[in-house]
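re the bet — no i am not wrong, look at it urself. input seq straight from the record:
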Amino acid sequence: MADENAPPNPSDTPSPTAEAANDESKDLFTRLGPAGIVGVLSAVLPALGGFVLLANLGTLGPWFRDMELAGLVLYAVIFMVTAGLAILPTYAQAVLGGWAFGLAEGTLGALAGFAGGSLIGYVVGRKASGDRVMKILDEQPKWRAVRDALVGPEGGKNRFFKTLLIVTLIRIPPNSPFALTNLVLSSVKTAWLPYLLGTMIGMLPRTMVAVYIATLIKGALTRDTLNEAKPVWLLPTGILLAVFVLVVLGYIANKAVKKVVGETDASSASLD
């Protein structure tokens, strides 16, 4: 039996640092209000929906393709709504576009879906966040530096192109979550036009890679091996090269974002 008079085991008692961090996280989530709930849903729902979508490629692909132009339009509209509301992941939907329509039309339909989805996500994020996120950012110098890099006091063309550049760089990395990024960028009141254009430019490489990989896999699974025999190494090599290019672009983009934010942070510090 345990000695009731024995001192408590330190490992059984949360450290003051852990308790403080936990309380701080709860306080931050409460202060975010609806934006916190939207953020959690944006992180969870797409991952779940992606498994369902990918499991039904063989059914959905021919269904969209058989409708021809109407199918492409319907695909883009569904992409817009489900991506904008964080119901389905963008990668899985881009794969569906490649599976159903091929590289050219699949990329076009997916980019249209990204454009509409980003605008829907922008509206949802602005409504959910209000001024709460801006007030929280003002309390954190580094976070404020990122915000200032996007929506700082500079005006005119300089501000437009700087915002466009940063949004583009943020969107390029393959691990940049679409729905959460929509929420963050809209919450800090990024101007909608550079936000939209930056999203389209930045999402183009990863969209083309996802669509291209889908066409490669579909071609490997459906081709007539007697008439279109191809080397076994062609499929994995094509996929690896496409992913490698995307990762390199993402690395370069991340470095560029850090440089821009670092410069903004340094200038803010000098003013303080």
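see?? The longest helix spans residues 90-129. told u. also DSSP finds eleven helices and no strands in the chain. so pay up
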